[in-house]
Design goal:
Bound molecules: iron/sulfur cluster
Structural class: alpha+beta
Radius of gyration: 18 Å
Helix content: 10-25%
Shape: elongated
Strand content: 25-35%
Order of helices and strands: EEEHEEEEHEE
CATH superfamily of the largest domain: CPE0013-like
Length: 119
């Protein structure tokens, strides 16, 4: 049996959860203020994911950089590989927030999208 404290980040309350788990599943949680913590803590232990945010250079427009992010959380172990991929990407043409900058990054099925405009 493993146990530890994990902060739930589903909402700004940021409950500090006491969790117990074995090799296969979450066994119990304590000090959660709502039911949303169970799924979050289980994923955080067995399948942690993160949203990746960074900037990439632009080809045209007033702004030399646009901010980008993964459209959905991606497996945490891929975060550095995705950052390496984005380190050599340049946004083509004028960019608007929401535009896809890289489709299906590293075969995850998740797109990298712009979160700012180039102009
Ligand atoms: S347990 Fe519920 S109230 Fe607490 S941080 Fe998670 S979502 Fe928010």
């Amino acid at each position: 049996m493993n146990e530890g404290n994990i902060v739930c980040t589903v909402c700004p309350t940021s409950c500090l959860i006491d969790a117990k788990w074995d090799e296969k599943e979450l066994i119990s949680i304590d000090r959660a203020q709502c039911k949303l913590a169970w799924g979050y803590i289980s994923d955080e232990i067995f399948d942690p994911k993160r949203v990746v945010t960074t900037t990439v250079p632009t080809e045209t427009g007033k702004n030399p950089l646009v901010s980008v992010k993964t459209a959905e959380p991606v497996p945490k172990h891929l975060v550095l590989d995705i950052m390496d991929t984005l380190a050599v990407v340049q946004a083509k043409g004028l960019v608007n927030a929401g535009d896809v900058i890289v489709a299906d990054v590293l075969g995850t099925g998740v797109n990298i999208i712009a979160t700012s405009n180039s102009d």
